[in-house]
Amino acid sequence: MTTQANIVTTERFNLTSYDWKSLLIGLGITLLGAGLTYLSEAVTKVDFGVYTPLIMTVWAFLVNAIRKFISESEYIK
Known about the structure:
The protein has one domain. The chain has two helices and no strands. The protein has helices at 17-45, 52-70. The longest helix is centred in the middle third of the chain and has 29 residues, at 17-45. The mean pLDDT is 80.
């Protein structure tokens, strides 16, 4: 099954509501990425003892899950 995308064009110096939505989603992804990067540096400096490898694995999974949740994805069926 193939789907055909509707292509929408906008004139120069004009932003549609879709453009604003896309810009705000990009801003959110950027801010969340910066926050996760900051937290990653803090988490990696904490000593969790014998649980450190487990905590780092869970942290990597959570960061990746958040990234997948907020970004758009296309898949081939």
